[in-house]
Amino acid sequence: MALTTTAKHALEDALAPQRKASVILGAGAGLRQGEALGVTCDRIDVLRRQLRVDRQLMNLPRQAPELVPVTTRTSVRTIPLPQIVVDALVAHLTEFPSADLRTRCGPAGEPATESPVQRLSGPLRDRT
What is the pLDDT of residues 53-103, one digit of tens each? Predict the structure, then answer.
């Protein structure tokens, strides 16, 4: 389900600064949750404004989250990134330098186990 512009802005306002780029990335690139949580710097080509999608973050009960290949060969793709997404990612990486695009971090820097939308769905419903 796609976010409305109002819901996207409410989500951005409710998130910690290190998580905001994930909302813009997900909304602007149309990624599935696992794909968005699996994005790392080496998959982003800022000059060509492209993102390579070939893996996702898998969260299984009682196991550490891990990056795994996407489920099918047709899910492997290179997608164009709108300039607003590129700008958000560059700003994010400038503010939060990291070797592995920390849009997918939990409070202590660990990989997130849920998307920002899942975490904030209750508070967002109360705002609209």
Answer: 999 988 888 988 888 999 999 999 999 999 999 998 888 888 877 644 544
Do residues 29 and 51 make contact, with C-beta atoms less than 8 angstroms apart? yes
Residue 87 CB contacts under 8 Å (≥ 6 apart), including other chains? none
Q: What is the DSSP string of the chain?
A: -PPPHHHHHHHHHHS-GGGHHHHHHHHHHT--HHHHHT--GGGEETTTTEEEE-EEEE--TTS--EEEE-SSGGG-EEEE--HHHHHHHHHHHHHS--SS-GGGB-TTSSBPSS-HHHHHHHHHHHH-
pTM above 0.70, yes or no: no
Backbone angles phi, psi at 9, to 5 degrees: -65, -40
- Domain total of the chain: 1
Domain hosting 121: range is: 22-127
The answer to whether position 17 is within a domain reads: no
What are the beta bridge partners of residue 52? 78
Within a domain: 8: no
